[in-house]
Design brief:
CATH topology: Metal Binding Protein, Guanine Nucleotide Exchange Factor, Chain A
CATH class: Mainly Beta
Family: Belongs to the Gfa family.
Radius of gyration: 14 Å
Shape: globular
Helix content: 10-25%
Largest sheet: 6 strands, antiparallel
Number of domains: 1
Pfam family, one: GFA
Strand content: 35-45%
Number of strands: 11
Structural class: mainly beta
Order of helices and strands: EEEHEEEEEEEHE
Protein name: GFA family protein
CATH architecture: Beta Complex
Keywords: Metal-binding, Zinc
Distance between the termini: 32 Å
């Protein structure tokens, strides 16, 4: 199995992430959440439950919780770009997804698909995220 390393982050470079996965960028179909928050930010989420995600910040990271208040949306504290979303999965492990619009090579991603997690109950959302989102490395330095 070939490993791919994808990188991205905010506009100013203060908040960066690395996603390690077994898939090339064109294999990902970013999930464009249709909730009001995500549509206003034009967020389309990418994750790989078999991969690893690391988020690094050279400045502050702003967090925002909305909806079911189970996930932290991460914004660069300097330039304000929405870069990722994280949660604690049902298994107690940190998981995350990155905003497809924050990939360095975002033009290589597959076509977006619409997702509607707002229609799920809070427990079902967490179960879905635990199944779909990427495990995060324990050495994340944005906390």
């Amino acid at each position: 199995m070939k490993a791919f390393r994808h990188e991205g982050g905010c506009h100013c470079g203060a908040t960066r992430w690395t996603l390690e996965t077994s898939q090339a960028l064109d294999a990902f179909a970013p999930r464009a959440c249709d909730c009001d928050f995500c549509t206003r930010h034009r967020a389309a989420w990418v994750s790989d439950p078999l991969g690893r995600l690391r988020i690094a910040a050279n400045g502050s990271v702003r967090r925002y919780r909305q909806g079911s208040v189970q996930a932290d949306f991460l914004f660069c504290g300097t330039c304000g770009v929405l870069v990722a979303v994280t949660c604690t999965g049902e298994d107690g492990a940190p998981r995350g997804a990155v905003n497809g619009n924050s990939f360095d090579l975002r033009d290589r991603l597959g076509a977006e698909v619409v997702a509607s997690p707002q229609k799920l109950e809070p427990g079902a959302k967490l179960a879905r995220w635990t199944q779909l989102w990427t495990p995060m490395t324990s050495d994340a330095d944005w906390t």
